[in-house]
User: Fold this.
Amino acid sequence: MQDAITYIGLGSNLGDKQAYLKQALAAINAHPQMQVLAVSPFFRSAPVGVLEQPDFVNAVAQVRTHLAPYDLLAALQAIENAQARVRTQVWGPRTLDLDILLYADLVLQDKDLCIPHAHMRTRGFVLLPLYTLNPELCLPTGELLCQLLSEIDTQDLQMLNNLADCVQ
Assistant:
């Protein structure tokens, strides 16, 4: 497998949210077939879907990987599980959520994995952090990130910090 540049969405809304994201970034970077290249600032965002839960902290990481998409998914789910991720409710509270947003120029849609991520086009907490990493990004579907971002409201997002240099 050749190197692929991927973008991974990170989110948490339980416990020490920022610590969970930092631990996830360290775990991704420690994996022998993944390297964190850049990390967006962390943003506070309101929950989506199930509204009666704590706010989230979200970020996006640019990652180089040698893993194929399904192997990457398995590795990310193992990192989630190591941080006590429990899947009891769709869009419910969680210690950690790691999503493959983009994987090189791949377009894939099946029951287990959708790339680009199925909901990323409408989620400010994904698009704005992604924009901070690559404002000129064009999705494999031909959509420009800046155009998608201009079509949604991001006023509820609050930048918490800039961690671009926290993972070496």
Observations:
- Strands lie at 4-12, 34-39, 42-45, 56-65, 97-103, 108-109, 114-115, 158-161.
